[in-house]
Specification:
It comes from Myroides pelagicus. Helices cover about 75% and strands about 0% of the residues. By secondary structure, the chain is mostly helical.
């Protein structure tokens, strides 16, 4: 177990993400690390972590979705219609709330100004990122699946191999993961101060939910969709 990657645990059973979060382990952007590697680097008690994982995995998960066995075109559709739509719906409200909080409370809580700037950057980058996936990467994944089913030849895409856009998307995932680590630290892990108004509390709760959804989103792509797409392309060739 100690030589299994973090991402493989979460790909098999997403409930394990809560355990990795508990230990401060990044399971989405850095899911390629093994239990052994991450415990050594972060000075985590390996046996305690493994025991926690074993206890969880021994419990029967009702309705636990195994995305690893989904057709890739269906998984791409799911990511787009669930996580892409979530990002597009939440960004405008968060931008509005953070701008208001910065104006009203920024003098007393200067960390809000930095959080606001970080999220403005996140909104701009994520909006471009989603379009690249929707207009370039996901259509090619669907074409590969269709080619496999029909037996027709697959035209070489303008980007050469699927590994090129996948590498770009994973690099951008790393950037957003790092951005949200800064937001979490600045906000004391989304804990509103004692004098926080309702808007303050709601905004921090929304930011926390946004980060959690982003983790699930990145996990599905980095640990399941992308490696499967690379494997499918190699199989077609």
């Amino acid at each position: 177990m100690k030589n299994r990657t973090i991402g493989s645990f979460v790909a098999e059973d997403f409930r394990t993400a809560a355990i990795f979060n508990k230990y401060g382990i990044d399971f989405c952007c850095k899911g390629g690390r093994t239990i052994e590697e991450v415990c050594e680097k972060k000075s985590i008690n390996r046996e305690e972590l493994i025991n926690d994982l074993n206890r969880l995995l021994a419990q029967q998960a009702e309705g636990n979705i195994d995305f690893r066995h989904w057709p890739l075109d269906l998984l791409a559709d799911y990511i787009e219609k669930t996580h892409h739509r979530y990002v597009e719906e939440k960004i405008p409200a968060l931008l509005q709330f953070l701008n208001k909080l910065s104006r009203v409370h920024g003098e007393r809580h200067p960390e809000l100004l930095e959080i606001n700037e970080l999220f403005i950057g996140c909104a701009a980058e994520l909006s471009q990122h989603l379009k690249k996936e929707e207009l370039v990467l996901f259509p090619f994944i669907r074409e590969m699946v269709s080619s496999t089913i029909s037996g027709q030849n697959l035209e070489t895409p303008h980007f050469g191999t699927v590994q090129n856009p996948v590498s770009m998307m994973m690099h951008e995932h790393d950037g957003e993961g790092e951005r949200f680590r800064k937001i979490a630290k600045l906000s004391n892990n989304y804990t509103p101060p004692a004098d926080a108004c309702n808007t303050y509390k709601v905004t921090y709760a929304m930011l926390k939910e946004f980060e959690e959804d982003l983790h699930k989103h990145i996990h599905l792509e980095n640990n399941i969709l992308f490696p499967s797409a690379i494997a499918l392309e190699q199989k077609i060739e």
